[in-house]
C-alpha cells in the first residue's frame, strides 16, 4: 500500500475540558452547507443538491438547497467547517466588544491558526486562503430553505456566504517579518442573521477533540436535535442523515457500524452521546439511528438554558411549566406553529399531548397511501376533538412506565435474592459454629472409653429401625464410624446450652451482612 500524502491539517493540540461556546449560523447548519468529507487527493465535487420535506405553519412542503462551486476549488468540506467555526469565534469576540458585527471583517492568519490550535506554517496559511476563496466562490440556490431573520421569511434566490475574500500580506523590504492578514465581507443575509442571533451554540473545544470528518459533521447537529427533544433520546433517518452529511449510505447494519459507527463511538468518547443503536425503520425500508445524549451534551444544554442562548427563547415561552414546555416543544417538532403549540400546551394535560403525538405520528408513518395530506393539521384536529388513543396502543410514555416498573421489580427480586443468600450464609456459618462447639465438647469431655460407649449406645438406638440398621451394615467400617460421629455431634448440639441463632448473629460481626 502506497504511503499517504501529508495533510495540510496538523495534529490538533490537547484541548481543555472547559465549555467554549461559539455561534453557528442556523441556516448553514440546517441545509448541510459543509459536507462531512475531505477532498484529499480525490476528484473535487462542484455541485450538490439537498431536498427535504418540512412542516411549516401546519403544512408539509418541499424545500431544497443546491450548492455550486468551481471544479478547481470544489465544495466546502470538513476542514472548511473547522476554519469557519474558528472564524465564528473571532466574530463573536468582535460582537462582544462592539455589540455588532460589521463589514469588512479583518483578521490575521496567525490569530485564526491560534484559535484552531494549528502551527504557524506556510501550508496552513495557504489552506486559509483556499478556504476563503471557496467560501466566496460557492453559491447556494435556496428554494424556501434559507431564512432571513430580519425579513421574517424564507428566500427563493441564489446567494453567497462570503461576498468577497481578500488576502493581504505585508513585510519589510528584505522580506522579513511577513504578516498574513485577510479581509472578509459577509453577504447581507448572513450578517443580519448573525447580528439577530439566529444561531446555534456549539462547544468549540469539544469539536476540536474530534478527528473523523463524519463525527464532526454529526456533532454540529446534536445540540439542535437534543434541544428540540428536551434532552431526551432522538431517532434519525440514517439515509437522510447521510445525504445531509454528503457521505455514502450503506444497506447493511454491519457496514454502517464499521463506518458511521466509528464516528458515533468518538462522540460517546467525548461525552456528547451516552449510547447509540441502529434499528430498522417501521414505516419504510432502511434504518434509523437512536441517539441518547451524554453528560457533556446535557451540560451544554443546561448552560445555554441558564444563559438564555437557546433558540428563540422568549418570556412567553418561559411562562409554561416544565412538562408543558416539553409538550410544546414536541408539538413544534411535529410542524405545529409556535403560537398554536403554546395554546395547546396551556390547555391540555402534557402527558395526554405526548400520547396524542405518539399515536398520530404512528398513523402518519403507516399512511402509505398518503391520505393524511397535512400531518400537523391532522394532529391539531385529533387533539382539539379530544379523540381517544386506543387502549391497545402502547405509547412511548406507557412503555417507559412499563420499563421502569420492570426494572423496579427486577431490582426488588435481586435484593430479595441477595437477602436470602446472605441469610443462608449466616445459617450455614451458625451450623458450622454449633458443630465446632460439639467437637470441642467431645474432645474435652468424651475421651477414650466414654466416647466409645456413647457411640455404641447411639448405634444400638439407630439399629432399632430395620431400615437404618441395614444401611449402617452396608457401610464400610470407617464410613460407619464417621456417620455415627456426625449423628453424635448433632445430638450434643441439642444438649449444649448454645446461643440461639438470632443472639449468635447479634454477637458476631457477620450479623452486619444480614
Describe the overall structure.
It is a single chain. The protein is an alpha+beta fold and 514 residues long. It folds into four domains: 11-200, no CATH class; 210-313, Winged helix-like DNA-binding domain superfamily/Winged helix DNA-binding domain (Arc Repressor Mutant, subunit A, Orthogonal Bundle); 316-393, no CATH class; 414-513, no CATH class. 53% of the residues lie in helices and 17% in strands. The protein contains 21 helices and twelve strands. It has a four-stranded antiparallel sheet with strand order 2-3-5-6. It has a three-stranded antiparallel sheet with strand order 4-8-7. Strand 5 (139-148) and strand 6 form a beta hairpin. Helix 18 crosses helix 20. The protein is elongated, with a radius of gyration of 36 Å. The two termini are 65 Å apart. The relative contact order is 0.08. The model is unreliable at 1-16, 308-318 and 510-514 (pLDDT under 50).
Strand order of the largest sheet: 2-3-5-6
The first-to-last residue Cα distance is 65 Å
Strand % is: 15-25%
Q: What's the average pLDDT?
A: 81
The tally of domains stands at: 4
User: What's the number of helices?
Assistant: 21
Shape: elongated
Question: Which structural class best describes the helix and strand composition?
Answer: alpha+beta
Structure characteristics:
single chain; 514 residues; alpha+beta; Arc Repressor Mutant, subunit A; 4 domains; 4-stranded antiparallel β-sheet; 3-stranded antiparallel β-sheet; 12 strands; disordered N terminus; disordered C terminus
Amino acid at each position: 500500500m502506497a504511503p499517504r500524502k501529508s495533510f495540510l491539517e496538523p495534529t490538533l493540540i490537547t484541548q481543555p475540558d472547559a465549555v467554549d461556546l461559539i455561534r453557528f449560523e442556523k441556516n448553514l447548519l440546517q441545509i448541510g452547507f459543509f459536507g462531512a468529507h475531505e477532498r484529499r487527493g480525490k476528484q473535487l465535487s462542484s455541485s450538490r443538491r439537498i431536498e427535504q420535506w418540512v412542516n411549516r405553519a401546519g403544512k408539509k412542503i418541499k424545500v431544497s438547497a443546491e450548492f455550486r462551486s468551481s471544479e478547481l476549488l470544489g465544495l466546502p468540506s470538513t476542514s472548511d467547517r473547522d476554519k469557519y467555526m474558528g472564524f465564528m469565534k473571532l466574530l463573536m469576540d468582535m460582537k462582544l466588544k462592539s455589540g455588532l458585527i460589521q463589514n469588512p471583517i479583518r483578521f490575521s492568519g496567525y490569530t485564526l491558526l491560534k484559535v484552531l490550535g494549528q502551527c504557524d506554517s506556510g501550508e496552513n496559511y495557504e489552506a486559509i486562503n483556499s478556504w476563503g476563496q471557496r467560501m466566496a466562490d460557492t453559491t447556494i440556490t435556496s428554494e424556501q430553505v434559507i431564512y432571513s431573520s430580519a425579513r421574517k421569511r424564507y428566500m427563493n434566490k441564489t446567494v453567497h456566504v462570503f461576498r468577497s475574500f481578500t488576502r493581504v500580506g505585508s513585510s519589510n523590504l528584505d522580506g522579513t517579518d511577513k504578516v498574513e492578514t485577510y479581509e472578509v465581507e459577509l453577504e447581507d443575509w448572513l450578517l443580519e442573521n448573525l447580528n439577530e442571533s439566529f444561531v446555534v451554540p456549539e462547544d468549540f473545544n469539544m469539536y476540536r477533540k474530534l478527528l473523523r470528518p463524519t463525527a464532526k459533521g454529526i456533532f454540529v447537529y446534536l445540540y439542535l436535535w437534543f434541544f428540540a427533544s428536551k434532552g431526551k433520546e432522538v431517532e434519525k433517518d440514517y439515509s437522510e442523515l447521510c445525504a445531509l452529511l454528503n457521505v455514502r449510505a450503506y444497506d447493511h447494519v454491519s457496514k454502517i457500524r464499521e463506518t458511521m459507527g466509528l464516528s458515533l463511538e468518538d462522540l460517546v468518547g467525548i461525552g456528547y452521546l451516552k449510547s447509540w443503536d441502529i434499528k430498522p425503520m417501521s414505516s419504510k425500508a432502511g434504518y434509523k439511528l437512536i441517539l441518547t445524549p451524554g453528560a457533556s451534551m446535557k451540560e451544554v444544554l443546561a448552560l445555554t438554558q441558564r444563559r438564555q442562548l437557546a433558540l428563540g427563547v422568549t418570556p412567553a415561552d418561559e411562562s409554561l411549566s416544565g412538562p408543558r414546555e416539553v409538550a410544546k416543544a414536541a408539538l413544534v417538532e411535529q410542524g405545529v406553529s409556535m403560537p398554536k403549540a403554546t395554546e395547546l400546551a396551556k390547555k391540555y394535560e402534557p402527558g395526554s399531548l405526548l400520547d396524542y403525538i405518539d399515536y398520530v405520528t404512528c398513523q402518519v408513518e403507516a399512511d402509505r397511501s398518503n391520505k393524511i395530506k397535512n400531518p400537523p393539521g391532522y394532529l391539531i384536529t385529533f387533539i382539539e376533538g379530544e379523540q381517544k388513543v386506543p387502549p391497545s396502543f402502547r405509547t412511548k410514555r406507557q412503555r417507559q412506565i412499563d420499563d421502569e416498573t420492570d426494572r423496579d421489580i427486577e431490582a426488588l427480586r435481586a435484593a430479595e435474592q441477595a437477602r436470602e443468600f446472605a441469610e443462608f450464609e449466616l445459617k450455614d456459618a451458625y451450623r458450622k459454629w454449633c458443630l465446632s462447639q460439639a467437637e470441642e465438647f467431645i474432645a474435652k469431655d468424651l475421651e477414650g472409653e466414654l466416647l466409645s460407649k456413647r457411640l455404641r449406645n447411639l448405634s444400638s438406638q439407630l439399629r432399632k429401625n430395620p431400615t437404618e440398621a441395614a444401611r449402617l451394615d452396608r457401610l464400610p467400617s470407617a464410613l460407619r464410624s464417621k456417620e455415627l460421629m456426625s449423628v453424635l455431634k448433632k445430638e450434643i448440639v441439642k444438649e449444649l446450652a448454645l446461643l440461639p441463632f438470632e443472639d449468635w448473629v447479634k454477637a458476631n460481626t457477620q450479623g452486619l451482612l444480614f
